[in-house]
Amino acid sequence: MTLTPIMDRDALNRFLETDFPQIHTDGKVFDVTDVGPGTVVMRLAPNERHLRPGGTVSGPTLFALADVAAYCVVLAHIGPVALAVTTNLNINFLRRPEPGPLTCTCRLLKLGKRLAVIEASIFGADGEDLVAHATATYSIPPR
Amino acid sequence: MTLTPIMDRDALNRFLETDFPQIHTDGKVFDVTDVGPGTVVMRLAPNERHLRPGGTVSGPTLFALADVAAYCVVLAHIGPVALAVTTNLNINFLRRPEPGPLTCTCRLLKLGKRLAVIEASIFGADGEDLVAHATATYSIPPR
Amino acid sequence: MTLTPIMDRDALNRFLETDFPQIHTDGKVFDVTDVGPGTVVMRLAPNERHLRPGGTVSGPTLFALADVAAYCVVLAHIGPVALAVTTNLNINFLRRPEPGPLTCTCRLLKLGKRLAVIEASIFGADGEDLVAHATATYSIPPR
Amino acid sequence: MTLTPIMDRDALNRFLETDFPQIHTDGKVFDVTDVGPGTVVMRLAPNERHLRPGGTVSGPTLFALADVAAYCVVLAHIGPVALAVTTNLNINFLRRPEPGPLTCTCRLLKLGKRLAVIEASIFGADGEDLVAHATATYSIPPR
Which PANTHER family does its entry note (chains A, B, C, D) (predicted)? Predict the structure, then answer.
């Protein structure tokens, strides 16, 4: 499976801003930092709202990071199709993240006509500890 | 498996307010409405922050509802152990919810010494359409 | 969602025998025992091949039971479409089953044009203990 | 997380033969081919029993491959603890495998005191096409 992205980092970030403004209600929290063949890297700079006591990032925030990053890796390879929707997301929480930014690396496991399957690995601020791991399925509307 | 809750609705809602205030940042959004043997029902009254264009409730909000409700059904049966943590959550998104409150019914599938497994069904405002379905695993700290 | 089955118990068992003979390599192990609106009940009579030391039924056998029963509840409602395929299956193993037959109750959570989502509950020989719980997604070929 | 295996390939294959003979009922089907820090590679040589019409390997066989390989990567790092049990397995089926042997690469995402989380990638005979992808949780008995 050779995958070639057709949207780059800036195009993805612009698309999130214009078509998905609600994820930026609290400032620019989600940021695509890299795009490659079958992959996207997204950074999350958490604010108070995303934290739990002790400074750890909340579960729903980790879920949102995996979900938005998975959406981006799909869009990067099929173009800005706003109607792709998550049908399934399975997430394992592995370690409590330290306070600080998180990085999510997403990889397309499959890009079919109707379904895309994505793996998402979320790393802590040190870039080494795997904080959470998810697999997601997106349904792709008929083109 | 006979399960007897040891925290009632009011005790659960008080616990959420005192130990989990961050989920109420935007007003009282999550509300335990019923507790039974092995079950908890939680209501979500979404505000603007939880909505996507068209008035539909966002995926991360559905995730948070399933996760908090699962936490409550565990606490209801083991007492206020703040350190129970989600280790896995698998969610299927079934239908776009209509605008309006959502109801999540949680059921303990297993309550072991180390792990609890919970099923969560999220219904739309009409109380009939199944909007999302999740299973979650919580790790229970040694008592 | 009102669901009306269009294949009954005998039609499903005949379909399994003619189109899916490999699941009966070791004798008639899988048996549909009941069909209702949105539901199918399947019985597994394990033989030596399905057991682990101590007489407990193996994980792959529990997986196969959930998967075949999920397939049957889809077929029961869309007709004998041999090409429906599992795209995702998430299974929680809850208790070691006692030796003896197992019963799997399947329920359609969603029956869309492209995807069906099914919940499967596997009970032990006593009919009360929940041994395993699964959710599965089937992709439905265009009709 | 630095992981050092304490069982090598031959030790794992011997353990499977002596403690898990039932997986070899039909001949030596499962074979550990490589062990590394946090990883195990397992080969499956399917026989008639594992095939579906058209020569494709069945879903339960792919499940069993992911499950046994995940078990081996846990054992490789904690030693031959026969009582580690799968508590959750989530599998995505991505492509119909071509006839021929399959290879499963397993990676420890977390090795805790109580739980291990493993990622399993199953490749087809060509060694390139990703046929299925799974994540599994194993419960580790107190040592």
Answer: ACYL-COENZYME A THIOESTERASE 13, THIOESTERASE SUPERFAMILY MEMBER-RELATED
Is pLDDT of A29 > 90? Answer: no
Which of C106, C117, C107 lies closest to C84 in space, CA to CA?
C117
Distances in Å between the alpha carbon of D89 and those of B11, C88, C133, D65?
34, 11, 11, 12
CA–CA min distance C122, chain A (Å): 21
Report which of A74, A77, A133, A71 is spatially closest to residue A102, judged by C-alpha positions.
A133
Does A2 reach chain D within 8 Å, measured CB to CB?
no
Say if CB B108 and CB B71 are below 8 A apart. no
For domain A9-139, give the CATH number: 3.10.129.10
The amino acid at A32: V
Residue A89 φ then ψ, to 5°: -145, 125
Task: State residue C25 phi and psi, 5-degree precision.
Answer: -50, -35
Cα-only R_g, chain C: 14
Stretch (H or E) spanning A4:
none
Query: Could you tell me the end-to-end alpha-carbon distance of chain B, in angstroms, rounded to an integer?
Result: 20
Q: Cα–Cα distance between B23 and C48 in angstroms, integer?
A: 51
pTM equals: 0.95
Question: What stretches in chain C show pLDDT beneath 70?
Answer: 1, 24-27, 53, 82, 143
How far is CA B16 from each of CA A91, B49, C8, D38, rounded to the nearest angstrom?
23, 20, 48, 39
Give every strand in the sheet of B130-139, ordered side by side. A30-36, A39-44, A102-111, A115-123, A130-139, A85-93, B85-93, B130-139, B115-123, B102-111, B39-44, B30-36
| D16 neighbors D30 (Cβ within 8 angstroms) | yes
Q: Which two tokens stand for residue A28?
A: 């620019």
CB atoms C109 and B95 under 8 Å: no
The string of pLDDT tens digits covering residues D53-104 is: 677 888 999 999 999 999 999 999 999 876 789 999 999 999 998 888 999 9
What CA–CA distances, in Å, run from D97 to A78, D102, D129? 25, 8, 8
Tokens of B72: 């409550």
Phi and psi at C68, nearest 5°, equal: -70, -40
Under 8 Å between Cβ of A98 and A55? yes
The CA distances from residue D117 to A95, B59, B70, C55, D42, in Å, are 11, 25, 21, 27, 17
ipTM score for this prediction:
0.94
Q: Is D18 on the interface with C (CB under 8 A)?
A: no
Contact D9, D32 (CB under 8 A): yes
CB D7 within 8 A of CB D35: yes
Query: Judged by CB atoms within 8 Å, which residues 55-94 of B form the interface with A?
Result: 58-61, 63-64, 67, 85-93
Alpha carbon separation from B81 to B7, B75, B84, C123, C141 (Å, rounded): 11, 7, 6, 30, 47
Read off φ and ψ for residue B67, nearest 5 degrees.
-70, -45
